From TrEMBL:
The gene is cobD. The keyword Cell membrane applies. This is Cobalamin biosynthesis protein CobD. Its main location: membrane. The lineage of its organism: Bacteria, Pseudomonadati, Pseudomonadota, Gammaproteobacteria, Pseudomonadales. Pathway: Cofactor biosynthesis; adenosylcobalamin biosynthesis. Coiled coil: none annotated. InterPro entries: Cobalamin_biosynth_CobD/CbiB. It is a multi-pass membrane protein. Belongs to the CobD/CbiB family. The chain crosses the membrane at residues 52-71, 147-166. HAMAP family: CobD_CbiB. It holds the Pfam family CobD_Cbib. Keywords: Cell membrane, Cobalamin biosynthesis, Membrane, Transmembrane, Transmembrane helix. It is found in: Cell membrane.
């Protein structure tokens, strides 16, 4: 089975079925990661070496198992499509952001704060409508990379082992990659590995956003603003995305009780419900572009 066909089939399954409501493998993996963190980072006393060991125990056996299953005759192609489907979160992303935009359009700020809290780790209780719209739009742009584009990239580059390694590593970064007292040392490996795996995909996604939106503005924001963002990969994605949409994102936010003076991203009017919807549409168009490129590459190779 060609890479392009496998990607198209996995995306079709994601759009048709969405994420499994019960027994999602990543949920089980999250429980495993939690137990490993308790074992290797009890009371936040784990060191970098403990984090490396825990990462290896969590990721390597499962990556090897999925790879072996994908090599089986007859069922190997189905395993590959299934693994990529489980790694994708395109429909889920849309299902999470739509209620936020709907609540903002209905001037229901409490409901908008509640629904956006499922998307972001910052405190949402005191956000005004603009703050909610910023948070949701930023989440659309960043999670478009993490939950969709990067998974497609690593599947195209390295097949099943690539996408499994990426998706599990990204999950561990989301759980362990915090710069706080508990995870500063233990989560260092998870954060750095995710940075490496996301480096190329993030820049391809930033370019995709730029090509499909306000290109000149997106490229300028990427160049000038991304270096001031604390994440080396989220910076290009979100700066280019904000510029492509012609909206202002970023700015101060509160995470885990601590204020963060974040850089301003993009240029234009304040974010609103339309910004969320346009960001979601930008991600969808980007996925369509990537599938077309993969199909064209497959035809050329054939």
């Amino acid at each position: 089975m060609s890479i392009a066909l496998a990607c198209a089939m996995a995306l079709a399954l994601d759009l048709l079925l969405g994420e499994p409501r019960r027994w999602h493998p990543l949920v089980g993996f999250g429980h495993l990661a939690g137990r490993l963190e308790q074992r290797f980072n009890s009371a936040g006393r784990g060191w970098r070496s403990h984090g490396v060991t825990a990462w290896g125990v969590a990721v390597i056996p499962l990556t090897a198992l999925c790879t072996l299953l994908s090599w089986l005759p007859v069922v190997g192609d189905a395993v590959a499509v299934g693994v990529l489907y489980l790694a994708l979160g395109l429909r889920s992303l849309g299902e999470h952001v739509a209620p936020v935009a709907q609540a903002l359009r209905g001037n229901d700020l409490p409901e908008a704060r509640r629904t956006v809290s499922f998307l972001v780790s910052r405190h949402t209780e005191a956000l005004d409508a603009t703050g909610v719209a910023k948070a949701a739009t930023e989440s659309v742009l960043e999670n478009g990379n993490d939950a969709v584009f990067a998974a497609l990239f690593w599947f195209a580059v390295a097949g099943v082992p690539g996408v499994v390694l990426y998706r599990l590593s990204n999950t561990l970064d989301a759980m362990w990659g915090y710069r706080n007292e508990r995870f500063e040392r233990f989560g260092w490996a998870a954060a750095r590995i995710d940075d490496v795996l996301n480096y190329v995909p993030a820049r391809l996604v930033a370019l995709t956003y730029a090509l499909l939106g306000k290109t000149a503005l997106a490229l300028r924001c990427w160049q000038r603003q991304a270096p001031y963002w604390d994440s080396p990969n989220a910076g290009p994605v979100m700066a280019a995305g904000a510029g492509a949409l012609g909206v202002e994102l970023g700015g101060p936010a509160v995470y885990h009780g601590q204020g963060h003076d974040r850089a301003v991203l993009g240029e234009g009017p304040a974010a609103d419900a339309a910004s969320i919807e346009h960001g979601w549409q930008l991600v969808q168009r980007g996925v369509g572009l990537w599938v077309l490129i993969l199909c064209a590459g497959a035809a050329f190779y054939a």
